[in-house]
Amino acid sequence: MRLPCSTERIFPSLAAGMAVAQALVTQLAAVDPARTSASIEAAEGMWSKFGLLHRRPSGG
Q1: How far is CA 15 from CA 23, 28, 32, 41, in A?
Q2: 3-state class (DSSP) for residue 2
Q3: 1-34 burial by CB neighbour count: b if 16+ within 10 A, else e?
Q4: Can you list the residues of the chain whose pLDDT is less than 70?
């Protein structure tokens, strides 16, 4: 039974938009992989500094 207030009409899927955004980011990252890597490391450093990133321990 469907209710008249079904949320599927209110909230469209974000899958297509996220796929396009990820494709654009991937292509832009491929332009300068070294700079991309350095930018990611810098962002992760800031996230760690402010306690927003909790890395899982690697290995055993």
Answers
A1: 12, 20, 27, 27
A2: coil
A3: eeeeeeeeeeeeeeeeeeeeeeeeeeeeeeeeee
A4: 1-11, 53-60
